[in-house]
Design brief:
Layout: H1 3-26, H2 35-46, H3 49-82, H4 84-99, H5 102-110, H6 118-140, H7 144-152, H8 157-195, H9 201-210, H10 214-248
Helix pairs in contact: 2-10, 3-4, 3-6, 3-8, 4-6, 5-6, 5-8, 6-8, 8-9, 8-10, 9-10
């Protein structure tokens, strides 16, 4: 085990010890379950098919909304980077989406969409402005000398976009994807809780709260955190692979 891993393990054990002491001081699992109570509840949940079905549906909604948000944000980023008129016209929309609390959006969206579609749409709304702003900034940060050179040699616009502007924007795009995925996951689960979406992590969290099943509530929360970490690592691995392929070409 590396020194970094040992350090991370030690810090985690310290937090677990504090949690255990606090739970022992309270002495009531329905108020504050211990790490052991939470682990037992998580293992019990993991032995049921409903656990995996709920996780699968939540992943489907959030990842679908995230993918749509990345696509829309990338297109809007490129458009507003090249068109000053489009940038000025759409800037208020971007500002409104970024400034409005997620909870307000969830309630508003529920007026028009079903509880099943709301989490995906919320993930889409959260991710789009992040990717949009980063891609726009990345495209505009292309080397001015290279831009002038491509214009002087009359390089076709599509080739210029593919070989100059998009590679320039890729680091910003990658950062937006990593950040956006975390926000999409948290916002999507929050939307499921408020919308009480069927067969979802959010619905299970809601039910655990209503019936005072606190160990189960903590177990579902732990599952959300673990899945968030897993998704982030998968995203970093994918982006790292894409970066390696770009550098190889």
């Amino acid at each position: 085990m590396t020194r970094r891993a040992l350090k991370a393990t030690g810090i985690t054990l310290c937090y677990l010890a504090v949690w255990h002491i606090a739970a022992a001081a309270v002495g009531k699992a329905f108020i504050l379950p211990s790490p052991l109570d939470t682990a037992k509840a998580l293992l019990a949940l993991a032995s049921t098919g409903e656990f995996y079905a709920s996780i699968g549906m939540t992943l489907l909604r959030v990842v679908g909304g995230f993918a749509a948000g990345v696509a829309a944000g990338a297109l809007l980023g490129v458009l507003t980077a090249f068109s000053g008129l489009a940038d000025e016209f759409l800037a208020p929309l971007r500002s409104i989406v970024k400034a409005t609390p997620v909870t307000s959006f969830i309630i508003l969206v529920l007026l028009y969409l079903t509880s099943s579609l709301t989490p995906a749409f919320i993930a889409f709304l959260v991710v789009t402005p992040i990717v949009w702003a980063n891609v726009r900034a990345g495209v505009r940060s292309a080397d001015p000398l290279l831009v002038e050179m491509t214009k002087a040699y009359r390089v076709p616009k599509l080739r210029r976009l593919a070989k100059l502007y998009l590679p320039s924007a890729f680091p910003d795009f990658a950062a937006a994807c990593t950040t956006g995925l975390g926000f999409a996951w948290k916002s999507g689960v929050a939307a499921e809780v408020i919308a009480n979406s069927g067969l979802s992590i959010g619905q299970r969290l809601n039910e655990s709260k209503i019936y005072f099943e606190t160990p189960e509530l903590f177990a579902w929360t732990a599952a959300v955190i673990l899945l968030s970490i897993l998704l982030e690592r998968l995203m970093l691995k994918l982006l790292g692979k894409l970066t390696h392929e770009r550098e190889g070409n």
